[in-house]
Queue: 2 jobs
Job 1
Amino acid sequence: MSVVTELKTRTPAETQLLQLAEARGENENARRPAIEALRRDGLPTRKVEAWHYTDLRALVGRRIKDDAAVASLKAGDDAILEPLLANSVVICLDDPVSAHLPDGVMATSSSSVADWQASPNHLDRSIDTIRALSAAFGASSAKIAVSSKTSVDTPIELRPAAGSDSHFYAQVSVGEGASATFVERLEGDGSPAPSTGVSTLTIADRANVLWIVDQEKGAEASHLGQLNVTIGADAVFRLFVLNAGGGLVRYEVHAETVGEGADVQIRGANLLKDGQHVDVTTTLNHRVPNTTATETFRNVVTGGHGVFQGMIKVAKGAQKTDAKMACNSLLLSDEGDFSAKPELEIFADDVQCGHGATAGEIDADHLFYLMSRGIPEATARALLVKAFLGEVVEELEDEAIVEALEARIDTWLDTHA
Amino acid sequence: MLEIKNLHARVADEGTEILRGVNLTIEAGEVAAIMGPNGSGKSTLSYILAGREDYEVTEGDILYNGESVLEMDPAERAAAGLFLAFQYPLEIPGVATMTFLKTALNAQRKARGEAELTTPDFMRKVKASAEELKIAPDMLKRPLNVGFSGGEKKRAEILQMALLEPKLCIMDETDSGLDIDALKIVSDGVNALRSEERAFLVITHYQRLLDYIVPDTVHVLYKGRIIKTGDKNLALQLENEGYAQIVDEAA
Ligand SMILES: Nc1ncnc2c1ncn2[C@@H]1O[C@H](COP(=O)(O)OP(=O)(O)OP(=O)(O)O)[C@@H](O)[C@H]1O
Ligand SMILES: [Mg+2]
């Protein structure tokens, strides 16, 4: 039997991405196989089911049209940023060792690249696209470990390297019975060539982790992110994803419950304006019996295209799984749209799983009620939009965190809605 | 204060005519009651006064202090002193009751060119009104009306009214859903607001409310028209006889 490798024609954007990857220089051996895989397979198109609503080849192609795009990569973004949460410790992912970390937290750099050959998302191709890009670009790699039974009160903010061509690969582990809060801070002007950020988060038994993604990149920026999480027995994983920026953004979450009693709570807000394409794709893999998950995304659309793909998978034998997923969009203009694709794949018979997706405008009766009390229309609308988003933010309960996120959301709403 | 002149209105998107020539005048200091069978248009009239867009005025006018309000939006009408206590107050998830009250109060003050209330002043005001209406402070920590019982919602409407100090208070079946004690508490609240400058339009089905809030005039609305006007004894007569005779007389 002979295998014929068909060499497809590369788009100019793909050619440029490969050139960029070749030009990185360092860590060549580890990156080479991923570069070759991308040379062979290119970027996914809408024919790949996982990328159906985000035709990466076309979307990246539209953004990288000429050499100017490459030149713009050099422009760094060094603005000094306050951490999202007060009193956070900041870890720069390209230089993790220099952070002054709280007791029980260790950070080291490493030279490993993301495992791009294992595809956690059964819908993607034989290679995992985001990880392959991350590996091809030789993401700066950091390992962060929280010792068991350590309760870390200081939030840990993870920042990619300054500059727009940043790629990071973070391996985070939280030991048995430990607790910690992480903020993945995605900021900066960025560039049309995608930056990538891949993280693995291993949550040991009875540990408790809150992970916040604050993505507020510039309108020109493309970013591909992925968070891979395993949750041990009686452990709690809470995630909040805020997308309030970026030109082309895809954020994937792949969570797996590996111990009984694991609990997953995913919340998020996607704020969209004209010119954006923002995609959140999640898979919840229930591997063992008696695990629970709730997932709610709220989207406010004033323009652009939004995508939510949510998959709940329940393995054979994962009885008593209780998983709920919802995606609600508030459409404030005819200019934008939001595609929601919830899916269930269940191989156990004693489970409770459900999903719902809604899309609509501001409720006219609610608006009338508020206005009938003297609240002017614009203020009343803003109150209702904030309420719609506030409901998911407030589920985080911690007052300081809720306030910090609501402040970011208010800033966006004041500017764009 | 309020002059409703030959008001005709229909449902905006389907055209069904609901009000067919309502004439009604209410003076400052007056308490007017509107009674009438189910479906006669009482709530519709109250919504149109408040400026709800679902209804279209096809003829006639509404003058408030001599000026037409038809071109004003609900917020402008409220700032001018109009208030509607809803028959069915809405639950608004995600909007904290206190945030709502403060936003409404300050928006009205701003529209009238008054200074905004400071948070402590506002808190004191809410606390005092809530105590009078026997509203538990915990209720005010919840999102607006969410999970309130029927009677709690009605009390919350009167709390809003007390805080906003409107000039024209329209109360749509505020008594329905209230227990006997609550009816007394709410009526006391309303009576405390009665003054020379303030008028009330009280919509109700029952004499009992009018024992507490004694009206100056009573009007019967039937099929979109006021078919009879009288004093408080008209309500007593309706209580005893029902609507049949009055409807016959008007026919
Ligand atoms: N938006 C609407 N669309 C269609 N019909 C409507 C609408 N609003 C009111 N109506 C109709 O108009 C009529 C008057 O309704 P309204 O609610 O004003 O009555 P009401 O006098 O307040 O009755 P009740 O005593 O039961 O509260 C009813 O027949 C009602 O079904
Ligand atoms: Mg009614």
Job 2
Amino acid sequence: MARVAAVRMLNAVTSKYANTNCRTLSMTSVAKAKEVAVRDALNAALDEELERDDRVFLMGEEVAVYDGAYKVSRGLWKKYGDKRIVDTPITEIGFTGIAVGAAMAGLRPICEFMTFNFAMQSIDHILNSAGKMFYMSAGRVNVPIVFRGPNGAAAGVAAQHSQCYGAWYAHCPGLKVLSPYSAEDARGLLKSAIRDPDPVVILENEMLYGVKYPLSDEALSKDFLIPIGKAKIERDGTHVTIVSHSKGVETSLLAAKELQAIGIEAEVINLRSLRPLDFEAISNSVKKTNHLITVEQGWPSHGVGAEICARVMESDTFFHLDQPAIRVTGADVPMAYAKALEDASLPSPADIVDVAKRILST
Amino acid sequence: MAFDKVLKNVINKCLKQPKLLRCLSTHFKHDIEDHVGSKIKWTSTLDFVSPDCFSPIPTYRVLDSRGNILNKFEEPAIENATLEKMYKDMILVNTMDKVLYESQRQGRISFYMTNYGEEATHMGSAAALDLNDLVYGQYREVGVLIWRGFTLSEIMNQCYGNCLDPGKGKQMPIHYGSKRLNFVTISSPLATQIPQAAGSAYALKNQNRVVMCYFGEGAASEGDAHAAFNFAATLDCPVIFFCRNNGYAISTPTEDQYRGDGIAVRGPGYGITTVRVDGNDVLAVYNATKAAREFCLERSKPVLIEALTYRVGHHSTSDDSTAYRSQKEVDERIQNDNPVKKLRLYLENKNLWNEEKEKEWLHLTKRNVLEAFNAAEKILLPKWTEMFTDVYGVIPHHLRKQMNEMEKHLENYRDHYPLEKYST
Ligand SMILES: Cc1ncc(C[n+]2csc(CCOP(=O)(O)OP(=O)(O)O)c2C)c(N)n1
Ligand SMILES: [Mg+2]
């Protein structure tokens, strides 16, 4: 008890998030939700979990002294020191392997990639080691590790820095794959992932780091966890189901607003988790709306939308569709640098509105 | 005693197998001296090799900080015009960096990286290469391209991604490439160029060309770097690995990047001939690169050059280096170990440069840079169809279909799009 209090005081003195932390301790409900940026939600979640469990540590390029390439770990090195917040040489394959080994030996590493594009260097450790070790050891060695960092298209950084790895990782048994959209998602999913006994990949979105979303008192609680494998209905609707994840949820919500103006009520499902996939939520919604659009920034072939459509085909949900399901995705080309080409490569609200109008008018 | 017994047993066994006895008997005559190809030196002293038992690999220099020649036998015979070009190109890079860095701050391009402080590594090495040699860069080597004849317009058009950009707006700013100048397009994921350079060198063996591969000391931590060194050595590839050790990888100082005597010491470990040079001494870099090139060609083997220099600017436009190093540190470097100043002093000592020429050249470069910059900004954007081209050699059916759809869409709604900004 005394230790907790002391740490709390330390928070108040050293943490930029002192306010956030104090709020989580108050049990009285506050009418108005607090607006928190995704970056700060992740930071507070890291802070709380580092404090809660001293096996947890953060490792990656520039995460300590520099506060993280995108400032997600701001202040944590000052607070927890070299042992818990570890800067690494530029060797993704090296520090991923080290983190996986540390997890197999009982620690709980959080492995930050500057972007998931650079995790390509580490893919063997993520899939072949972290993802399969529990199975290969017949349940004797688990790998409680979190791989996280920005995923998907940022702005003006072209082909090698702009792609969605959702489908890549979600393809692989042994991994859990999360794709947060809002501050609530970021906070609740990261905390769940850190406490999870299995390897979890968290695909954050750079463009959303600075965006603020309301956080309820419940979401601000230190033990706020979002169950892995459960989707969230972001908006109720009766005419068409739009399923998306990450930044695509924002695009879908904007489209839903435009659709509302012409009398179409779209239901927007935020997947939150790509693996396991909450197909039940999708199915229930389609049974109500009889129309389905999937939205993602990733490429169409063998993608998240493709998986959802296949599951619809294979289940009785299929009989509830009045029109073919449609995927709205990133264009099937590498990302160009020029802004005009970049914009044209990503799904926009107008693309979704077009598709919705098309399937609802025929 | 016990040993004798064992020996007896062995000999008895061998007597039953005469072949074995023969092996055993030669073994007693002399030790093996070679372990499947690598030499063995035996010792009866149990000695661990400590990293401290070697003194650092020395750093080769030709000039002192005042631009004086330290040993007249080391002064390279470079033509005056070439020396002058080295200096002029350094100033050109500085001027261009300033304009493009500022333009990013104003939101006109999305990204930029400056080259301040590393000018001598560019000019010294580029001048020692042949235009026919193939060059792989990391991203902070624009001086090498300029030396080889990349024009200001080519640079500005690439950074703007306009319709004259040979990369057609597909790659990020500063990811230059030029087939004409044998310069491979820059790739963002670190260190991928290093094994690729070894591979190209393997392919280009015995063609009187070498491959030059630049990389940072940070990138040298990637697995790719180690694989490249090993392959280049075992496959006898004529490649020069040129490490720009500028002290930092974004915020990570070298002391957190590696332990041991820098990058150079790795060379002998892989069986690669290696030299360390003062990267702020353009003549030292020139001599080292020239000798390395000759060695590569004569022996068809790799060489590693580690050039010690200093990254004066921020890492990139996404970085603020005041967060991890003091202004004092930077100022001291600019003051005391300045590659551009050093060359200028050398040129002045030789009566090849003076204040008047300096003023004139500064004025001219500023004008040229701004002209190219302003022109690039006005040039039309790449045609929108570029989005679909170059994914494959032949546009596949599904992309062509989408391209046609987009074309129809643009015809129907042309008033809604700023089509006048695009080339047709
Ligand atoms: C595989 C990979 N990991 C990380 C990065 C991000 N990154 C870009 S530049 C850089 C620092 C490289 O430092 P160094 O090689 O020393 O070159 P310098 O910038 O000093 O010229 C990092 C970490 C990247 N581009 N690719
Ligand atoms: Mg460096």
